[in-house]
Design goal:
The complex is a heterodimer of chains A (244) and B (478).
Chain A: E1 6-15, E2 18-28, E3 33-37, H1 44-52, E4 59-64, E5 67-68, H2 73-78, E6 80-83, H3 95-105, H4 112-121, H5 126-129, H6 138-152, E7 156-160, H7 168-183, E8 187-192, H8 195-201, E9 204-209, E10 212-217, H9 227-235
Parallel strand pairs in A: 3-8, 3-9, 6-7, 7-8
Antiparallel strand pairs in A: 1-2, 1-4, 4-5, 9-10
Helix pairs in contact in A: 3-4, 3-6, 4-6, 6-7
Chain B: H1 2-16, H2 18-75, H3 92-98, E1 100-103, E2 123-127, E3 130-133, H4 143-148, H5 153-169, H6 174-179, H7 181-186, H8 192-221, H9 227-255, H10 259-288, H11 294-311, H12 313-322, H13 336-372, H14 377-389, H15 393-420, H16 426-429, H17 442-474
Antiparallel strand pairs in B: 1-2, 2-3
Classes of the chains: A alpha/beta (244), B mainly alpha (478).
């Protein structure tokens, strides 16, 4: 079996004495969509921040493609794409210009045709390519984010509440794009509350409560698992998750 | 990655209009200040030319009178070298009545900084009686204008330039942090320090580029005096002073979370360093080293003149006592010029303490401001700008010292002639002492600039290093 693309090894982060992520062990392999479920404050975003190197762990390590994020922050970022809940773009520039800049930061000098191709692939309408990003809806900004992941050729995709605030149709379209990226070999770590979308997109699920990974549901068990009951059980302290 | 940031930031500054507005404002201010400076310099030059022309004209008139008097003397069979009575051929005509007008040409970069050129005399008439600053209506500015000061290039760079620097840089990365863009950007392989450095570089290039183009145009319009070296020196001061503000903006940006906080902190810094500290330093300097007022001087002069007049022949006796070598006549045989020389010396003696105190106190103020100027980069920059332009205290102090020495030489030349009643010959008029003011060598200028420039560079470097450390920490605490 190949090495995991994303690997948290005893990852721990504390803020002012409160433990946000507690000795987390987690792996995401190429082609997987790993959904990290958990209530607010469970440590999902902190985990993503640790993989991005935006935070320094107090113990353990976050590895991307076998590289320690703290030791090789720039190298690991070459392999990552990140989509926050609100994809922020430079509002005075068009989608193409935003994509060109971010791709250039990742070391890719892309032609206009390539850029348009990635935006097309992400499903952004042609007429929007050269429109100011300040006029984009949330769904359109998410598509630029996906286009960026495509342009970077990212090995791992970190999604933080990506479908929050999207209408069902946009949300479904987004899930399709994420699956597409995973099918092309990317490892996807998705922090979310959206149980419906998890069932639809994820190949593996982890439940994170108070910084600890309480349970993992493997892909083969997912179709038969009542995710809602499992989630609520862990969040509200039910001792045994209820199978479907 | 750095080059991507440079290209992108350039594009973003252009697209947002910030680059255009900054360039327009800065170049507009430079153009206006340059116009004011060039006008002021050309007016000064005009005044100096007028004084010189008037002086030459009256010297011509003296020459004609001396020539006529010599012709008459020859016609009367008198010796041209024999003792003369008070009249057209008496040396008093030149030594005390006509005197010599000494002028100080505008400094090499006078158009860049008015400095003390609107307060200090650019021409001085030297007679045995003393040195009289020349200042007709044409040479004097309106008092309100003097009080408000001129909007010259030094003013633009000391006061406005930091505001433009801060307007362009106050939310260098904190604006992106607030909008969430910074997380997007830093999820790519680029360090926050590199990003901030790229942004600063683009802004610095815009600001310093406009400064170079604008001041270059003013330099050419003012006749490209002082050589390209002076202009380059001026730009060096601009770069170091601007560099301090850029580094300060980066330092604050690296420490705060929002652009509003950064803006407020930087506004307070500007107010403190550009307005409050210089004002306090100035007030303390004038309080610690109060100079005698013009009224004190006039009163002392009037008192001394009255005393000398009342003493009459006693002044002369005293003079002979001090200058036994000039005791060529009996006191009762003394004529008006001799009496006048004695009285002038008496007045000069009485005024000497007032003048000495004025000079000492002024020098004390300068020393104090130079020492405490290190509390504010604005004071350092102001001094450096005036020094480079050549309109600071040093230039006028040097001119003052040289005219004083010239006055002594003038007295030595003419006073003995009064007492020996030597006639004034036409040839004497062509051999009058002259003064070509030697103000300051480049080496002296550079040694005086070294301290302030090194301090500005050091401050900028320290702030830059602290900002870099701050960005390093902030990049892993998003």
């Amino acid at each position: 079996m190949s090495a995991p693309i994303l690997h948290a090894r005893g990852l721990t982060k504390r803020f002012d004495g409160a433990t946000a992520v507690d000795a987390l062990d987690l792996t995401v392999n190429a082609g997987e969509v790993y959904a990290l479920l958990g209530p607010n404050g469970a440590g999902k975003t902190t985990t993503i921040n640790l993989f991005l190197g935006f935070l320094v762990p107090d113990a353990g390590a976050a590895l991307v493609d076998g590289l320690d994020v703290q030791a090789e922050p720039l190298e690991t970022k070459h392999r990552l794409a990140y989509l926050p809940e609100q994809v922020a773009l430079y509002p005075s520039l068009s989608g193409v210009e935003n994509l060109k800049y971010f791709a250039a930061l990742a070391g890719h000098d892309l032609s206009d045709a390539d850029l348009a191709g990635f935006l097309d692939q992400a499903g952004l309408q042609r007429e929007a390519h050269s429109r100011r990003a300040g006029t984009y809806s949330k769904g359109m900004r998410q598509k630029v984010g996906i286009a960026l992941a495509l342009a970077k050729g990212a090995k791992a995709l970190l999604l933080d509440e990506p479908t929050s605030g999207l209408d069902p149709s946009a949300s479904a379209e987004f899930s399709g794009l994420v699956r597409q990226l995973a099918n092309s070999g990317a490892a996807v770590l998705m922090a979310t509350h959206d149980l419906f979308r998890v069932k639809d997109t994820a190949t593996r699920v982890g439940v994170l409560v108070a910084g600890r990974l309480r349970e993992e549901v493997a892909s083969e068990a997912l179709p038969t698992t009542d995710l809602e009951a499992l989630y609520l059980g862990h969040v509200h302290g039910a001792k045994t998750p209820v199978p479907a | 990655m750095g080059s991507s940031v440079l290209r992108f930031e350039t594009k973003r500054l252009l697209a947002s209009g910030a680059a255009g507005i900054t360039a327009l404002l800065l170049l507009g201010l430079i153009a206006y200040a340059g116009y004011v400076g060039v006008q002021h310099t050309s007016e000064q030059r005009g005044v100096i030319e007028t004084y010189a022309a008037d002086h030459a004209e009256s010297l011509d008139a003296v020459r004609q009178r001396v020539a006529a008097a010599e012709s008459t003397a020859v016609a009367n069979g008198e010796s041209l070298d024999g003792p003369v009575a008070f009249g057209s051929r008496h040396p008093y005509v030149i030594g005390s009545a006509q005197g010599r007008v000494l002028t100080l040409e505008p400094a090499p970069l006078a158009a860049f900084a008015v400095g003390q050129s609107d307060l200090q005399p650019a021409a001085v008439r030297v007679t045995i009686g003393g040195r009289e600053p020349m200042g007709g209506a044409a040479a004097l500015d309106h008092p309100l204008k003097l009080l408000a000061g001129h909007v010259d290039l030094a003013f633009v760079f000391v006061f406005f330039f930091p505001l433009l620097v801060l307007a362009l840089t106050f939310g260098l990365t904190s604006a992106e942090r607030e909008s969430g863009l910074l997380r997007m950007v830093l999820s790519h392989p680029i360090r926050l320090t590199t990003l901030a450095a790229g942004k600063l570089t683009v802004r610095a290039a815009l600001l310093f580029g406009c400064a170079a183009v604008g001041t270059g145009a003013v330099w050419l319009a003012s006749g490209a005096e002082g050589g390209v070296g002076r202009w380059a020196l001026w730009l060096l001061v601009v770069v170091l002073y601007g560099g301090f503000w850029l580094a300060l903006a980066a330092f604050v940006d690296s420490r705060v979370r929002t652009p509003v906080t950064a803006g407020l902190v930087l506004a307070a810094c500007w107010l403190g360093l550009v307005v409050v500290v210089p004002a306090v330093v100035n007030v303390v300097a004038t309080s610690l080293y109060p100079v005698p007022s013009r009224m004190d001087y006039v009163t002392a002069r009037r008192t001394a003149a009255g005393l000398a007049e009342r003493e009459g022949a006693a002044s002369l006796a005293r003079y002979f006592n001090d200058h036994p070598e000039l005791t060529t006549v009996e006191e009762e045989e003394a004529d008006f010029p001799m009496l006048r020389v004695a009285q002038d010396e008496r007045i000069a003696e009485a005024l000497a303490p007032v003048e000495a105190r004025f000079t000492e106190q002024k020098a004390g103020q300068q020393r104090f401001v130079r020492a405490l100027g290190y509390l504010s980069p604005a004071v350092l920059a102001q001094q450096a700008f005036l020094d480079v332009a050549g309109t600071g205290h040093a230039r006028y102090a040097a001119f003052d010292a040289q005219t004083e020495a010239f006055h002594e030489a003038w007295v030595d030349r003419f006073a003995p002639a009064y007492f020996e009643r030597q006639p004034l010959r036409l040839a004497d008029l062509d051999a009058l002492p002259t003064l070509d003011p030697q103000i300051e060598s480049t080496a002296d200028l550079l040694s005086r600039l070294a301290g302030p420039l090194a301090a500005l560079a050091l401050l900028a470097a320290l702030l830059g290093a602290a900002a870099s450390r701050g960005y390093g920490r902030a990049g892993s605490a998003l």
